[in-house]
Amino acid sequence: MERQVKRRTSPAEDTGSEVSEEERLKDQREKEELEQHLKERDAAGTRKLTEHKLTRREEEEAIRRSTAQENDDIQPLRKVSRQEYLKKREEKKLEELRDDIEDEQYLFEGVKLTEAEYRELRYKKEIYELVKKRAEEADNVNEYRMPEAYDQEGGVNQEKRFSVAMQRYRDTNAEEKMNPFAEQEALEEHQIGKATLKYGSKNKKQAADDYQFVFEDQIDFIKASVTDGDNFDYEEMEDSLEKSRAKSALEALKEERKKLPIYPYREELLQAIRDHQAWFFPASVLVIVGETGSGKTTQIPQYLHEAGYTKRGMIACTQPRRVAAMSVAARVSQEMGVKLGHEVGYSIRFEDCTSEKTILKYMTDGMLLREFLGEPDLASYSVVMVDEAHERTLSTDILFALVKDIARFRPDLKLLISSATLDAEKFSDYFDSAPIFKIPGRRYPVEINFTKAPEADYLDAAIVTSLQIHVTQPPGDVLVFLTGQEEIETAEEILKHRTRGLGTKIAELIICPIYANLPTELQAKIFEPTPEGARKVVLATNIAETSLTIDGIKYVIDPGFCKMKSYNPRTGMESLLVTPISKASAMQRAGRSGRTGPGKCFRLYTAYNFHNDLDDNTVPEIQRTNLANVVLTLKSLGIHDLVHFNFMDNPPAEALLQALELLFALSALNTSGELTKVGRRMAEFPVDPMLSKMIVASEKYKCSDEIISIAAMLSVGNSIFYRPKDKQVHADNARMNFHTGNVGDHIALLKVYTSWKETNYSTQWCYENYIQVRSMKRARDVRDQLAGLLERVEIELTSNPGDLDAIKKSITSGFFPHFARLQKNGSYQTVKHPQTVNIHPSSGLAQVLPRWVVYHELVLTTKEYMRQVTELKPEWLVEIAPHYYQLKDVEDAGSKKMPRGEGRAQ
DNA sequence: GAGCACTGC
How far is the CA of A725 from the C1' of B9 (A)? Predict the structure, then answer.
C-alpha cells in the first residue's frame, strides 16, 4: 500500500506511520483473541466468569499501567486516547443498558455476560470495527495518510474520515468529543500548565497529529483575512513605558502621552483645525478618523487647550455613554495634573462635575443636547468635539444637525467629528466636504474566519465553536455574542452540561454571562482575571460590543445577530426583533478580540453572507424610534420645518408626522405647529412627551408628588421586578401584593416606590419583594431630578395620595391617546386607531380585564400587548381630551352602565 | 399566562 506522509521531517513522526502498521497488526491480534474468546465461551456455555471479574479499581489500574507503559512507546498517544475514549463510551452505553437488562447480566450478540466481560468484549469489538472501517476507507482512496491536525494544510480531516464510524455516537456526552491533546499542546506551547504531564509529553509535536476526538458537528471555518494591525512598535512602547515608570507620576504620564499614535500628528492636526475654513461654511469642521487606542479622545482637547483655544471658551467633548465621559475626564485630569472637576470636568445626567474653572468638559451627547435648550448658540464653547460619531446615537444625530445649524452664525466655532473609518466619507459629505484627518490606532491584527456553509442553528454552532476553541486553541478568553438574556441562559446550561464531568481531561472552562439586566454583583464576575490554566467564556449581549471592555479576550464568536428595537409609527408599536448585524457591527465585534494581542474572530456565517446579506451600517436610531421627544426638543429650540431639517439621515416622514400629531394632541403644539406654553414646560422634562404632559397636568389635580414617582418608575422601564427562574411563584406573589384592590399598574408602581421610600430605601426590602435595587435607585434619581424641574417650571409639589381618581386623571391627561376598550373575546381594541391588543400577562389587571383601560406602551412580542395598564372611566376622556375624543367614541359607556365586574373574562 | 438588545436626557 502506498503511503503518503506529508510535511514530516522529524524521525519521531516517521516512525509514527510505522506504528500505525504495527497497531493494525495488534488490532488484528485482538480481533483474533476476541473470536477465540467467543468460541471458548460458547463451548463453556454460560459458565460463570465471576472469578475473572475485575474490580473497578483493578480496571483503572490496568488502564493506568497500559497508559504508562505505552507512554514509552514511540507512538503512545493514539492508543491511549482511544482506550480512554472507548472506555468512557462503554461506560455510558452500559449505563443505558443497565436499565434494560436483568440480573446484572449483559448481552453480547445474544449471550449473557458479566459486566466486566461485556465491557471487555465490546471494547475489543469496537477497536476491530474502527480499524476495519479505517482500513476500508484508506483502501478506497488508495492511500493512507497519517492523521494530522485537521487544520493543517494537506492534512486529513479526522472528523470527516471517521464520520461514519462516529455516526452512532452522536448525541453522546461531549466529553467523548474532546481532544485532550490539542489543549495539551496549547498549554505546553505556552508553558503554563503542569497538567500536561499526564500523557507522554516527550514528544509534544505528535500530540497535534494524533487523533482528534473532536465534536460531532464540528464547524469548518475558512480563514478569510487578517485585519491589519497598525505599524506600531509595541516593544518600544513597552520599553519606554518601563523607563517612564521610574520618573514621577506626572512626568511618566507626560512621557506616555508622547507615545500615543496621535502624538506625531499634533502640529499637523492643529494646523488643519486652524486653516480649514471654506467660504461656504463659516465654521471650521474637521472629520477625524481614529481607531480605538489612538488617543484622540484624551489628547485632542488637550492639544487644543495648549494651542490656546480655551481662552475663548470651553472645549466640549461628547461621548455616547456616561462611564466613558467620566473615565476619560478622570484620565485627562490626571495627565494635566489638575483636580477632576476643576479645569477638567465632566457632565452627565444626575452628576455635574464641573466648576467655573472648567475648560475641558467631557459630557454625554444627550447632555450637550440639553444644554442647547438653555444656550441655543453654545456661546460658552469654542470647540465642540463629537466623539464616537459612527455610533449614530439619537443624540449625536441631532447634535450634528444642530451644530451644523449654529455653525452658520458662529464662524469662530471649531467642530471636530471623530468617527471610525467606515463612515468618514459620509460625515465629510454631510459637513460640506470637510477634510478628513486620519490617525492610526493601536490595534493588533485579528484573523477573521467564516464558516464554509451557513449554520442553521447559530446558538448550537456558537457552543460547538467555543468548545472547539477551548480544546484546540492556545490560551485566551472567548467572547460569544448572543442576542439576549434567555439565549445566554440556555447557552450557559448547555455549555455546563457538555463540560460537566470532564475533570482534568480539558482545562477548566469558566462561563460568565453578561447582560445589562444582570444584577451588578454577578456582572463583576467577568472582570475577575482568569486563573492560570483555565479559560473564560463570556456570553454577552451587545453590551460587550461597545459598552464594556473585557481584558484578555482573544477569541470572538460572532453569530451575526442582535436584537434591535424597531418602531412602527403607524401602529405606535415597538418590538424587539432578532436581526442580522451590519458589517460595521461585525467589524466592531471582531475588533474586541484584538485589544491586548493578536486575536481571532469566528463568524458563524459565510463570507458570502457577509458581503451580500449584511448592510454596511446599522440603521441609525433616528430611523427606527418614536420621535415625539426629538420633535419636542427641536421645536423648543425654534426649529420649525422639521421635514426639511437637515438630518444626516432623514427619519421616516410618517414617524415625524405621527410625532407632530401626538404633540398637537397633547397641546404641546398649536395648529400652526408652534410650541405652546404647555409644550415649553413639557420640554423641560427629560422624559417622553406623554409622561411630561402627565407631569404638567398633575398641577391641576394637585398630585404632582405622586405623579413624578409614577413617571420616574415608568421611565426606568420594565426592569423593576426581578423574576429568577427558580422562584417565579414567589416573585409573582410578591408582585401581586402591590396590586391589591386591582388598582392598576400605575398605582402599583407608585405603591412600590412609596413602600421602598418608607423602608428608608432599604436594599433588604427590595430583595424580599423581588425588586431590582438598581432600577429603584435609578427611579429615585429620576424622581429627584423631576422634582427639581417642577420647581423650575413653577409647578408646586403637592401630594394627594388618597385621591386615586386625581392621579388617574393626570395619567389620562398624558396618555389619553393610549386608550383601549374590552371586546367580547377578552382582547382589547384601541379607541382612536382601532387595532386589537391584549393586556400583558405581567400586568396586575391581566386577569381582571376592566372595560376601559389606558396603557403606557404597546409592545409586539408573541402578541400585541399593552404594558402598564390602568382602568379608567371613559367619560374622563371627553372631559380631559374633548379635542381628541367625541362622545360617540365612548358612548356605550354612558348608555349601557354595566355592573362592576361584568367585563370579567370567563 | 409571558418575556426582559443597548444607550441617553
Answer: 33
